[in-house]
Amino acid sequence: MADLSETRREFDLWADSYEEDVRKGLGVLEGHDQSLAKATGLLSVKPGQSILDIGVGTGAFAALFEERGAKVTGVDLSLRMLELAKERHPDWPLFDGHFLALPLADSTMDAAISAFAFHHLETAERPDALREIFRVLRRGGAFLLVDILFTDQAAKDLARHRLGDQWEEENYAVFPDIARAAAEVGLAAAFTRLSDLHGAVLFEARER
Ligand SMILES: C[S@@+](CC[C@H](N)C(=O)[O-])C[C@H]1O[C@@H](n2cnc3c(N)ncnc32)[C@H](O)[C@@H]1O
């Protein structure tokens, strides 16, 4: 399993300057806000529906769905991120948890989202994370993933080359690997390129 305590420490330390760093748009988070805005159109949410954001951070992605009437619940493994999210969104239920152990009952959410957090999982953990997300979704629910995520290896190599020193090496996925993880747990996965650094995947249960 990925070292969760190390990831928690990293984000607890980063939390207070995270939003400012995102605004500066440096490195692999370049175009963060534009990618989130583009991605929101990929998931249809009706007013009053419940949406779970995993790796909610300070709440930037989920807030775009709240504007469309969704009722947001957030999960994160960084307690400092959760404190800041609570300051900005006092009404949201927010929980300490992670992709592989969501502190929610089965079939309780209409949809799930996650932005710029999935790459903290190890490759072998991706199917388990998808299984856990779909455990908490109601029948017909979808999961929208946004991440530093590439069409294929050639696109990833090009982006690494373009960013040069600003590229940070982490476990960024290419879509064929994500599609394989989805197929392993019986999900359909549709990819949308958001920029040369970011991609979105909409996961849905396959029709039976
Ligand atoms: C780069 S921030 C993104 C925050 C927010 N989604 C956004 O786009 O602004 C990544 C967030 O994911 C959280 N995170 C990292 N690994 C996680 C995991 N395995 N489970 C849940 N949250 C995780 C971090 O604590 C952090 O808040």
Short structural summary:
The chain is an alpha/beta fold.
Which short descriptors sum up this protein?
Rossmann fold; globular; 25% strand; 208 residues; binds S-adenosylmethionine; 8-stranded mixed β-sheet; 7 helices; 8 strands; 38% helix; alpha/beta
**Annotation field: number of helices:** 7
Mean pLDDT: 96
CATH domain fold name: Rossmann fold
- Main structural class: alpha/beta
Distance N to C terminus? 32 Å
| Pattern of helices and strands | HHEHEHEEHEHEHEE
Q: Please name the fourth-level CATH homologous superfamily.
A: Vaccinia Virus protein VP39
Percent range for β-strand residues = 25-35%
Indicate the radius of gyration in whole angstroms.
16 Å
CATH class bucket: Alpha Beta
Helical content band:
25-40%
Bound molecules: S-adenosylmethionine
Question: Shape, please?
Answer: globular
Number of strands: 8
**Can you tell me the number of structural domains?**
1
